[in-house]
């Protein structure tokens, strides 16, 4: 009896502490960092288990990194356990075809290698020992082999030159390509596993898929490993899984990628721009016979930006994911179109669903779901999205402070185009109160603000701003993904003009709603959002303060230094030497004399997408003009903060900058 009373007392004490924590907690960057992310979901062949990856920031002492670990959940919701442990990340889990083993990649031995573990536990076994590690892998259909991608290693001569400090880099020469290898699961007599190389040569493999009979691998490849090449050209070939016999089956201008064999092995579905480069971005779905004949385009998807997930079991349909306005969803498309054919929506549109793992034979799927007010968790449901069951509780024990309400609003831009955006109110907002408004602009321009959890960690911590009395408008102007190809292409040769009107009319909408104080307006954005921020302050003085993150104010110097130059040229319509005026017209740096808004500059020191000098140009010009400015450089940082401690620095420094020019609740 005394033990029972003691147990109840402890339970009540813990409950009170948790309740008190929720009441007393507020939204800070430190609190948002507690929320974990989930990705890389794989459903077992029998549908009884789901394996997934949980990423957590590790910030003890001098450490500032993310650690990923693998979890396993039963699809009935009765079991959910952490599968891998330690300070080394493990990721990319995949069930063997018989469901008895899980293969995954881990850096336990410094480089990313493939490891193998029984589903029911035991010691993990490292099965690859590649010098440069492994890029990705896939089980063979019979489970006897694993195919993997590995990047070419340095030759002995190159290693010698490197050690002797004579390793001069020759730009765009001596590429190291990724190629396909296989490894046998069963060991040879010498206790080693046989590794066989299947592809080789001056091309770079970026994705592949086994045929159902395991005799062939289809793969997409491009001429070099540069990221810019992704938008220009990629072809599709076949290779025998027991030799290096190659057959090119899709060779046309533009990228052809993500090939997937049909269940009978006779057809291959893939994503394509349709025989021409589309650097702004487009992915339609095509099908071709295994022998390279009968190439045909399927129905156009709603956004024409599809990502193939898998074929239906009967080979009569394809499941694919796409952005639908402010949601990310799953669709099913018939292979044979008719007048009555329709693309079926298979998931919830009131939130964001990602990382789908589909078992079309059992008509089941597992996926990650989150919405504006709910952090991400793992779910299991029927293939039509009905009867979802939450399997994980990764974020359930984290205190949830009171949140600022977020709602979807719509308005009409200057030229009549309808625009959507997400408006987050300050916490404890009272109707009729006018508050500071921060206009936040997304990257891309083909990015999009979706219904993701607003309390999670990000460059701009939404609920942290709301906690400090600021309303946040996140618009999806023309150029955004999720609203169809025409909308995504609507800012072609128009950066800084139509999109400017879209976001400014959104600000006017929030003012007209009686929420925003027109005398306390701020603007901020990263990447393309930084670009439009720089352009905005050259066109209007309505904003009292601005923060440009990884912005590109000079398109002429940008196009010759970025690693995605064709993306920018695609939007401008021409090379800068053939149309210098359009690059100058759309560059904020040539309008710098018009700026009077105090503008903060934030940039990553190692940014290759938008080189560091872009932020530096704007900062120096503002400084020389006598405009209030400051520049913050994030060391070791590429195109966005990759270290959690640095990520937590960004929003507080923006808020501190804003507080100098608009009255906010610090």
Automatic annotation (TrEMBL):
Signal peptide as annotated in the record: 1-19
Keywords per UniProt: Hydrolase, Protease, Serine protease, Signal
Catalytic class of the enzyme: hydrolase
Domain annotation Peptidase S9 prolyl oligopeptidase catalytic: ranges: 461-663
Keyword Magnesium (UniProt): no
Keyword Nuclease: no
Cross-referenced InterPro entries: 6-blade_b-propeller_TolB-like (IPR011042), AB_hydrolase_fold (IPR029058), Peptidase_S9_cat (IPR001375), WD40 (IPR011659)
SUPFAM superfamilies, A to Z: alpha/beta-Hydrolases (SSF53474), DPP6 N-terminal domain-like (SSF82171)
E.C. designation(s): 3.4.-.-
A GO MF term: hydrolase activity
Designated name of the protein: S9 family peptidase
